[in-house]
């Protein structure tokens, strides 16, 4: 087959890598779910120490610190599961016109999902204590097995730079032709700059409008900063390629902003299609936890002035409030993953029986 256009040749070259990235994204999210199902079930049966004298020992998941370790990861796995499904659908229904978008989304989501998988596996391993190291309990083995995904089908850092380069190209083309944004979810940049309230209450922080506005504001601002910095280096005599390389820090922040905004919007669409009120409530809590955790884990919102120090502190406080609200749903959430019992581990069911002398001596 002969491709006359340069973009068609490039798309054909990337096609084998793209399907690999789609598969890695879906697999990374699934493995995170397996680890979280094991660690959460273990935390719902394992007790340690009593809060009151002569009182019953406390379940691990009833400790606020343990909730803070696992529940934000649960929220991320749920939200990223929707983006993985979005990517699979995009690939199955791909058209020649969608090749660029498919490349950008597969690069971004593969990188973030595989990174998050490693974070999740490590935290789940530690949350299970020494049990997490046992081969039969799977978590430690999975971490070693799936670490390669961070560089397989493209090093994650390089993939994120490709995402930023594609966003920059889209931005430059729009500015040059004075056309509105039409692809990669950048249509929000056609409207006015979102306004963020000076004082953030709990209800505001959990509002989907605020969450979308904040993520769109960050992406818009970083894309403009990135374009300005690349132009500055070019004005100093650097080539376009060198200017891009020198702006790698902004490129990394921009790619992360694009990925998290895209992931949020995909989940919001899924949430809007849910009719059952109880499920809608839980999905709203998961969405809010995802957003609050993304804000709390990165310095970019403070670094670029998208949030004040006081508002960043309010976000951190809200994470703990959401942990409390999601704690009663933890078992239902991991059960909803639909993971067969045979894919889990002994400590996900009866950790005491799994560690009886009879079972240990038979290993």
Automatic annotation (TrEMBL):
Similarity remark: Belongs to the acyl-CoA oxidase family.
Entry's Gene Ontology BP terms: fatty acid beta-oxidation using acyl-CoA oxidase; lipid homeostasis
Keyword RNA-binding on entry: no
Listed InterPro entries: ACOX_C_alpha1 (IPR055060), Acyl-CoA_oxidase (IPR012258), Acyl-CoA_oxidase_C (IPR002655), AcylCo_DH-like_C (IPR036250)
Pfam families cross-referenced by the UniProt entry: ACOX (PF01756), ACOX_C_alpha1 (PF22924)
E.C. code: 1.3.3.6
Matching SUPFAM superfamilies: Acyl-CoA dehydrogenase C-terminal domain-like
GO molecular function: acyl-CoA oxidase activity; FAD binding; fatty acid binding
The protein's enzyme class: oxidoreductase
Catalytic reaction list: a 2,3-saturated acyl-CoA + O2 = a (2E)-enoyl-CoA + H2O2
Cofactor dependency: FAD
Residue stretches making up the Acyl-CoA oxidase C-terminal domain: 212-344
GO cellular component, one term: peroxisome
Subcellular location: Peroxisome
Keywords: FAD, Fatty acid metabolism, Flavoprotein, Lipid metabolism, Oxidoreductase, Peroxisome
Name listed for the protein in its UniProt record: acyl-CoA oxidase
Phylogenetic lineage: Eukaryota, Viridiplantae, Streptophyta, Embryophyta, Tracheophyta
Record-annotated Acyl-CoA oxidase C-alpha1 domain positions: 17-168
